[in-house]
Amino acid sequence: MIQIGDVVVSFDVLREKFLCDLGACKGACCIEGDAGAPVELDEIAKLEEVLPIIWDELSPEARTVLEKQGVVYTDCEGDLVTSIVNNKDCVFTCYDEKGCCYCAIEKAYRESKTDFYKPVSCHLYPIRVGNYGVYKAVNYSRWDVCKAAVLLGQKENLPVYKFLKEPLIRKFGEDWYAELELVAEEMKKQNML
Asked: What is the distance between the alpha carbons of residues 5 and 129, in angstroms, rounded to a whole number?
């Protein structure tokens, strides 16, 4: 692991390759799992603000959950996460005509209907950030539904941290990311990656 400021980064974030292959996975990371996506406290207001904008994109089941429970809940581990439908699907998911899952919030953002991209934990996936007192831990999360993304990342030789440059900057800032790149380059020179 390496440390940049108060953030500890797993070597896997620098070594492993990853490039989303939506055509292969159909957005499974938004509809599989045992809980919703982690949400930061300051994101709750943004989720509630964007809700009227995306309401018509959401399934009737998702609307029912949102009306009863709201945009987030506390999961069995005590984490604040997006509400889910059918014990797995994020309430903000939608489907296109080909059966591919997408995020209604991200779609609204791309259509310039909101300035909120989506929860940063979603934007960072397959990276997960853990909070450990004064330190944050940045880890690469391996999951079967992303096998195609790993293969495509290997083919394109794209490390996880480069694939996730934009969300890493969103979370930790440009200076932090620039330092991460410098560390990665130095490690490559020393054949550590």
From this structure: 15
Predicted TM-score (pTM) of this structure = 0.89
pLDDT band with cut points at 50, 70 and 90 for residue 103: very high
C-alpha span between 85 and 182 (Å, rounded)? 42
How far lies 100's CA from each of 27, 93, 127, 145, 183, in Å?
A: 6, 10, 22, 14, 37
The greatest distance separating any two alpha carbons of the chain, rounded to the nearest whole angstrom, comes to 55
Return the percentage of the chain with pLDDT > 70, whole number. Answer: 100
| Measured distance between the N- and C-terminal CA atoms of the chain, rounded to whole angstroms | 12
Strand spans (E) along the chain: 2-4, 7-9, 72-74, 80-82, 84-85, 89-90, 93-95, 101-103, 127-132, 135-140
Give the pairing of strands 72-74 and 80-82.
antiparallel
Q: Where are the domains of the chain?
A: 1-18+126-193, 26-116
